[in-house]
């Protein structure tokens, strides 16, 4: 559910929504969600001083009330 939310939200922000994809990695104490986007969109997704990605993380922290899993969000440029 969190992975789908992040993917759809990233598509709304991105200039090239067709290139946005996510990958989920389950670790021992956390789940990492990697957002792959066009190189031009990575800065937009991270935001100035990380404000956009921190806002997304804040929404996910609110979700933790129902789901005790810790999430780590990473934004990476998609290879051409």
Overview of the molecule:
This protein is α+β, with helices and mostly antiparallel strands. It has a single domain (1-79), classed as 2-Layer Sandwich (GMP Synthetase, Chain A, domain 3), CATH 3.30.300. Helices cover 41% and strands 28% of the residues. It contains 3 helices and 3 strands; from the N terminus they run H-E-E-H-H-E. Strands 1-2-3 form a 3-stranded mixed β-sheet. The longest helix is centred in the C-terminal third of the chain and has 13 residues, at 51-63. The protein is globular. The mean pLDDT is 89.
Main sheet attributes: strand count, strand direction, barrel closure: 3 strands, mixed
Percent of residues in helices comes to 40-55%
Record the strand order, biggest sheet. 1-2-3
Going by CATH, what is the homologous superfamily? K homology (KH) domain
What would you call the structural class? alpha+beta
At the fold tier of CATH, the topology name is: GMP Synthetase, Chain A, domain 3
Pfam family, one: KH_KhpA-B
GO molecular function: RNA binding
Protein name: KH domain protein
Organism: Campylobacter gracilis RM3268
């Amino acid at each position: 559910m969190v992975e789908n939310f992040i993917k759809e939200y990233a598509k709304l922000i991105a200039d090239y929504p067709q290139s946005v994809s996510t990958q989920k990695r389950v670790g021992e104490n956390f789940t990492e969600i990697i957002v792959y986007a066009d190189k031009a969109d990575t800065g937009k997704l991270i935001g100035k001083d990380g404000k956009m990605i921190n806002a997304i993380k804040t929404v996910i922290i609110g979700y933790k009330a129902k789901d005790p899993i810790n999430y780590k969000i990473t934004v990476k440029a998609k290879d051409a």
